[in-house]
Design a protein that fits this description.
six-stranded parallel beta sheet, five-stranded parallel beta sheet, about 25% helix, elongated, 13 strands
Amino acid sequence: MTDDAVPDLRASDSDRERVAEVLRDALAEGRLDMAEFEERLEATYKARTYGELAPLTRDLPAAGTVPPAAPVSFTKEPAQSGSWAGRIVGGEGSSAGAVAIMSGFRRKGRWTAPRQFTCLAFWGGGEIDLREADFADREVVINCVAIMGGVEVVVPPGVEVVVRGTGVMGSFEHPRHEEPEPGAPRVVVGGFAFWGEVAVTRKVTRAERLRLKERRRQEKLERRRDGEY
């Protein structure tokens, strides 16, 4: 049965969830950016007919159809052998350091963290975001000097973190403890904070937060279908 044959047929919650699964897969594979994903996802949950659903996945795999149901796991799987290897790329890194004097700096998105990165924040602030970064080696060292300023180092779940910095009327904040994943890189954060702060935090990406939100939505729908409430 094609979309053109039944454009006015009313879509069910299950049909909308199947389309949402295709969109989530497309986001994870890089076929859609975040803005496109959010726009199409909103349209998916507003759709009332197959005719409104069909265009949302027409340019994606299984295009032009309402995709068949498939189990979607939103839980974080243990890293398979070599899964981190693709992000440990060698080389010199995209940037060896940064300086913020009464200003700010940011390293985030797709970049390569070098074996050693040095930064200074003086009456300023900086952000070093490793969630989507590649790594020049299995261990990278980030040296931070924060004088009446602050630096935030953001690492993804699964990465081993060691904090060795010293604070004088300042602080180095450690991330919550988490067992490293097999093959994950090691990030060592050191340096000096004087009337300043270096904070190391673990965060998932925006896309992962959205997937977790959709997981909760899907579980809620399933409980409703099962008559739990």
